[in-house]
Design brief:
The chain folds into 2 domains: about 220 residues, Rossmann fold (3-Layer(aba) Sandwich); about 60 residues, Alpha-Beta Plaits. The chain contains 10 helices and 15 strands. Helix 6 links the parallel strand 7 and strand 8. The longest helix has 16 residues. It starts with a strand and ends with a strand.
Length: about 300
């Protein structure tokens, strides 16, 4: 699968502080890619280099198969920052038209696409409202439209569901899936792990400016599993030296067991059946991304403490 974005050994320092410390990653075309990390881990600095706002101190960025050109390539990128960048006193329709034309659309193209989005998001009556009159959720929907209206190849969304109610969250979520299925690539940054599990194909976790995890969501969960299984039954047989598992918890006619090293699920089922246990369900328990996240950053501050660079 071809890549839309490739970062090679990116570094960014502020004075003597490391914000991004030798990060490399690749984002496949058409994927929904999660960029995760605690507050202050370096995610925003990384995004600002990808969008040409910051220049890396070292390393390279490749966009759509060639070296990234901030002047020409930025028109193919849509960026929705966590801090809203809308003009509060400007009317919504005028502002959306201005931003769409700034991204290269003609006035006719911009008007057609904006009207389509406004109808889809039930924003038709907003045209003459000012941004300062919008709620946080309404402002979030508008910011999303201004980010994607020019149909960019790469869409960067930083906490896109902030302030949205469940109905509008699902609306934005459906559009993310649709945009990805139509060929756009989504780079999705958030703190909410349950959204990442539901939406993303691939994730990278950064902490203290470094990449500490990189892989598909499915593979990451497999890599961190702990041989835990949930067994639905009224009672487990008494454990003995030949038992292929140990019990670690129980609740409402369900038991959580950990399979011993060298044993497998078939060994457990055979042991249960041999002991006359009636099994109603037998399911592997995979860790959540939130569990993995906590495990990997445990003991580190949630607000990143910059690492001082030692003088050579």
């Amino acid at each position: 699968m071809s890549t839309i974005l490739e970062l090679q050994n990116l570094k960014k320092y502020f004075a003597t502080q490391k914000a991004v410390d030798d990060i490399s990653l690749s984002v496949n075309k058409g994927s929904i890619f999660g960029l995760l990390g605690p507050n202050g881990a370096g995610k925003t600095t990384l995004i600002r280099m990808i969008t040409g706002i910051f220049y890396p101190d070292s390393g390279q960025i490749f966009f759509d198969g060639k070296k990234f050109d901030p002047i020409n390539d930025v028109g193919y990128i849509g960026y929705m920052p966590e801090e809203r960048g809308l003009y509060k006193k400007m009317k919504i329709g005028e502002q959306t038209m201005y931003l769409a034309q700034l991204k290269g659309l003609s006035r006719t193209e911009a008007l057609e696409k904006i009207k389509r989005w406004f109808i889809k998001f039930e924003m038709e009556t907003w045209w003459n409202k000012k941004v300062e009159d919008l709620s946080k959720g309404m402002s979030q929907k508008l910011q999303f439209v201004t980010t994607v209206v020019h149909e960019p190849k790469l869409i960067i969304l930083d906490e896109p569901f902030s302030g949205l109610d469940p109905v509008n969250s699902n609306l934005i979520k459906d559009e993310i899936f649709r945009l990805a299925s139509n060929g756009s690539t989504i780079l999705f940054s958030t703190h909410r792990m349950e959204q990442v599990e539901e939406i993303c194909d691939h994730i990278v976790l950064v902490n203290k400016g470094k990449k500490i995890l990189d892989g598909s969501v499915k593979q990451v969960k497999q890599d961190f599993k702990e041989n835990l299984f949930s067994i639905g039954t009224t009672e487990l047989p008494a454990l003995n030296g030949s038992s292929p598992y140990e019990t670690v918890g129980a609740k409402d006619h369900s038991f959580v067991v950990r399979i011993k090293d060298g044993k497998n699920p078939n060994d457990v089922l055979q042991f249960l059946l041999q002991n006359g246990t009636s099994v109603h369900s037998f399911n592997e328990i995979l860790p959540s991304l939130n569990d993995i996240f906590i495990k990997l950053v445990e003991g580190t501050p949630t607000a990143r403490q910059f690492q001082t660079i030692k003088a050579d």
